[in-house]
Amino acid sequence: MKPANSILSSFGTTIFETMSRLAQAHGAVNLGQGFPEGLEPADVIAKAAEAVTAGPNQYPSMMGTPDLRTAVAAHDRRFYGLELDPMAEVMVTSGATEALAACLFGLIEPGDEVVLIEPLYDSYLPIIRRAGGTPKLVRVEPPHWDLPREALAAAFSPRTKLMLLNTPMNPAGKVWGQDELEFVAGLLERFDAYCVCDEVYEHLVYDGRRHVPLMTLPGMRSRCLKIGSAGKIFSLTGWKVGWVIAEPHVLGPVAKAHQYLTFTTPPNLQAAVAWGLGKEDSYYDGLAAMLAERRDRLTAGLERVGFQVMATGGSYFITADFRPLGFAGDDGEFCRHITEQAGVTAIPVSAFYQGGDVNHFARFCFAKTEGAIDEAVMRLERFFARIGP
Length: 389
What we know:
The chain has helices at 6-9, 15-26, 42-54, 66-80, 86-89, 96-107, 124-130, 149-155, 178-190, 230-233, 248-258, 267-276, 281-305, 331-342, 370-387; strands at 29-30, 90-93, 113-118, 134-139, 160-166, 194-198, 224-229, 242-245, 308-309, 317-321, 344-345, 347-348, 361-365. By secondary structure, it is α/β, with parallel strands linked by helices. The protein folds into two domains: 6-40 and 282-387, Aspartate Aminotransferase, domain 1 (Alpha-Beta Complex), CATH 3.90.1150; 43-278, Type I PLP-dependent aspartate aminotransferase-like (Major domain) (Aspartate Aminotransferase, domain 2). Strands 2-8-7-6-5-3-4 form a seven-stranded mixed β-sheet, sandwiched between helices. Helix 9 (178-190) links the parallel strand 5 (160-166) and strand 6 (194-198). Helix 3 runs antiparallel to helix 12 (267-276). It is globular.
């Protein structure tokens, strides 16, 4: 038989699917995959149910329903002061991962260089390589996740087509600050590059921090593509509703890629998300406050167990160093070990790096019910008390 595509065939099953299957097989509390529990807004779900009954239930425009595109534009005006033409600068996608694929396939030519910051979400590299791009990796590392500015500047060249920027950052929980964003903006201008901004955790920031879209900085409006996710805003990750915001000359080629990926997104879900984006500030503030409480609850529990927990300013995730527990293996072995033996699942942070040397950290998701968090901590405490250091 002739071989399949060599690039995509070279990648294994995503670590999130792998660990979730393992969690299911062992009856583990799954703090690995980043799907939230107990946070879904009932009124938004009710709107989806109403819309599927009322219809229409046929193909909407590949660009998204006018109501949702208008709601996305209003959302970004309300929170960031962005003035958008919803019919020319907003496109709805079937989730943020599809939005990423459309942006990368629409902009990258074979041989183009793409600057990325590790740790990085696992879909980035396969899409870039399949599009013919050359990844240029720069890393931030625990415990402080500081940006190595010299290394970032050195990664840019005349062949740089774009940078992919994730803020707040998965799994680091890093919320990029104004000065870091200004540094990035300067590089984009100097090398005439675009930036695909993965901002799906834009409302999940804590401790008085503020999410600043790179698109709002001077000179960045025409260079940035801003990706958002209803799954993260409304804790409804299975709906797979996302969007891309960009100026028409940038959004055009992205829409050409999108039309051959998923083409469109269920109209009832678009209707519910359009309604939900107009929810009062108390919803957005309450979601962040509730998640901050759960972050602190899990942090305290993991520290009682003996982990060294890194600070997290945004996202769903805590990164924890397990070396104080005395485990001798790497992070993949550790996460499998606690899933099978303690009944708690986490994700090895090495899955977000290419070098294999950041291998003693586990990522735990705190967007779970308090009961699930408490049960996971109890199981870990019981297990590590039993086996000793």
